[in-house]
Amino acid sequence: MAKKILGIGNAIVDIFVKVDDNFLKKNNLVKGTMKLIDSDEYRILKKKVQIEKIEAGGSVANTMAGISYLKGCSSFIGKINNDEFGKIYKKSLEKIGVSFLYQEKNENLATGASIIFITPDSERTMCTYLGISSYLSKEDINENYIKEYEIIFLEGYLWDKGISEKMFRFVIDLARKYQIKVGMSLSDIFCVKRHRNDFLKLLQNDLSICIGNENEINALLGRNNLLESINDIQMINKLVVITKSENGSIAILNNKITNCKSVKVEKILDLTGAGDLFASGFLKEYLDKSYIKKCLQTGSKLASKIIQKVGARLN
Q1: What are the boundaries of each domain within the chain?
Q2: Which end of the chain has a smaller Cβ tally under 10 Å, C or N?
Q3: What is the per-residue pLDDT for 309?
Q4: CB contact at 8 A, 133 and 77
Q5: In this structure, what is the dihedral angle of CA atoms 244, 204, 184, 265, given to the nearest 10 degrees?
Q6: How far is it, in rounded angstroms, from Cα 259 to Cα 212?
Q7: From CA 210, how far away is CA 215, in angstroms rounded?
Q8: What does the alpha-carbon distance between residue 70 and residue 74 come to, in Å, rounded to a whole number?
Q9: Which CATH code fits 4-10+58-109+131-306?
Q10: Helix (H, G, I), strand (E, B), or coil: what is residue 253?
Q11: CB-based contacts of 261: which residues, under 8 Å, 6+ apart?
Q12: Mean pLDDT of each 10-residue bin along the chain, 315 residues long
């Protein structure tokens, strides 16, 4: 039987646009960050830009797509509306072999969307309208789906709304009931800073796997440098994976530290999805019971591939 992983996250349609640094300044956007916006700001920003590309997104959905690309068996749960973007979302996941386990219906909010501003230096700045995606509730989770999986992978972004936080807890309880490993992506440094105490408790008590970049990990542990963070992680005794961009990646498990170099690329086109696709490679190998070093290496390979194209899909 195929190894299975279920991702649960925000179902967001990605809208890719190219802008210059001046556009970011004029619109008070901080380069390289993700900002949550309301429906009015979303409409205003969308009018100011020329759309390059639209595809199904969301951090964990991107990770599940990457696992499918590697011929793994992945599924995704995310809340969408039965609107135009919702239909695009569902079709684009199913087209690449990711099983979409949410039955869309007419909702009072639109399907979520993220405008991704790509500057000439290939950095991406995101403005995300969560729409209906942030209202994923425990009623949307079918226990019969949950018990089939080996790993459930959640995104930190889900903690931003009370209703989704309850869903998060519900999923963790089900995972414990069926002895399923729970992994989490830290998602974003501001997300970590907002929920640091909760995330730290999750890592200590509930998670088997935590994946984040160097800045997110330092924010989580409340440290100024990675060496101090690593010392703290070794005492927690969980699998923590840290990405360091061009400086490679680290995995810490059972007091053992495994280092991996990054894969060099000649030209970076777009950094969107680099962390998400790193997680794809790592988790696919982890499901296949590969050595941790190989998990890191495959993660690095996928991250290097995705930054050489626009968008977060290799499929």
Answers
A1: 4-10+58-109+131-306
A2: N
A3: 84
A4: no
A5: 10
A6: 15
A7: 14
A8: 10
A9: 3.40.1190.20
A10: strand
A11: 248, 300
A12: 84 92 95 90 92 88 96 95 92 93 90 93 90 91 89 89 84 96 93 94 96 96 95 93 94 93 85 89 97 97 89 74
> Rounded distance, CA 8 to CA 165, Å?
12
* Alpha carbons 155 and 272: distance in angstroms, whole number: 16
Q: What is the pLDDT of residue 282?
A: 98
d(CA 308, CA 271): 8
Tokens of 190: 């501001």
pLDDT at 122: 85
Instruction: Render 107-146 in DSSP notation, one character per residue.
Output: -SSPPEEEEEEE-TTS-EEEEEE-GGGGG--GGG--HHHH
Separation of alpha carbons 166 and 198, rounded Å? 13
